[in-house]
Amino acid sequence: DVFEQPHHVGHKKIEFHITTDIPSVLQINSEKDEKNDLYAATEEINNTGFGRIFPAPSSNDKMETEEEDDEIPSEFISRKDLEKNRLSREEMEKFSVFKNYEPGDPNCRIYVKNLAKQVQEKDLKFIFGRYIDFQSEVERNMFDIRLMKEGRMKGQAFIGLPNEKAAAKALKEANGYVLFEKPMVVQFARSARPKQDANEGKRKK
């Protein structure tokens, strides 16, 4: 009994992994099953490197490009969906909210306005979470969403991202994205300091 079980496992492996001309050899030398099994396994590793069993490269390529497209876990929006629901430049010009649009000075915080009433923080996390590496504790801590729901700031949000590069990418890809039938206006957030400097500059002049 003890010997029979590995024997069956051996057979299963042979069916899955070995090319068609080997089983005939195995039928003749059944007692050499295990040796052939080992030989086939090492041969397979040598042939394919890292023991990949999928011989069809086309399907692998597809899988890899799909992953590259998204670059992010599925719990966040994909680049395709972002592009699909984003207004074109011509369409943006028809909306008054984009009339005097200025992206602002690059920094790691972005400012989002023209948000629909029903937008919640989780909706913004779904969109902007794709620019965060959640395996990095530093990036997780820097990811910050402040959604304003009351008063004059209603329908606006500030989102902190790990760096300027992530913020610039988010601005480029999410500006004009239609969320709950309203296009988001995405800009770099103005920090308080540059404003003061500008005022001082005016005073001196």
Automatic annotation (TrEMBL):
<dbReference type="GO" id="GO:0097157">
    <property type="term" value="F:pre-mRNA intronic binding"/>
</dbReference>
<feature type="region of interest" description="Disordered">
    <location>
        <begin position="50"/>
        <end position="71"/>
    </location>
</feature>
<dbReference type="InterPro" id="IPR035979">
    <property type="entry name" value="RBD_domain_sf"/>
</dbReference>
<dbReference type="GO" id="GO:0005689">
    <property type="term" value="C:U12-type spliceosomal complex"/>
</dbReference>
<keyword id="KW-0539">Nucleus</keyword>
<dbReference type="GO" id="GO:0030626">
    <property type="term" value="F:U12 snRNA binding"/>
</dbReference>
<keyword id="KW-0694">RNA-binding</keyword>
<dbReference type="GO" id="GO:0000398">
    <property type="term" value="P:mRNA splicing, via spliceosome"/>
</dbReference>
<feature type="domain" description="RRM">
    <location>
        <begin position="108"/>
        <end position="191"/>
    </location>
</feature>
<dbReference type="InterPro" id="IPR045164">
    <property type="entry name" value="RBM41/RNPC3"/>
</dbReference>
<dbReference type="InterPro" id="IPR000504">
    <property type="entry name" value="RRM_dom"/>
</dbReference>
<dbReference type="InterPro" id="IPR012677">
    <property type="entry name" value="Nucleotide-bd_a/b_plait_sf"/>
</dbReference>
<dbReference type="Pfam" id="PF00076">
    <property type="entry name" value="RRM_1"/>
</dbReference>
<keyword id="KW-0677">Repeat</keyword>
<protein>
    <recommendedName>
        <fullName>RNA-binding region-containing protein 3</fullName>
    </recommendedName>
</protein>
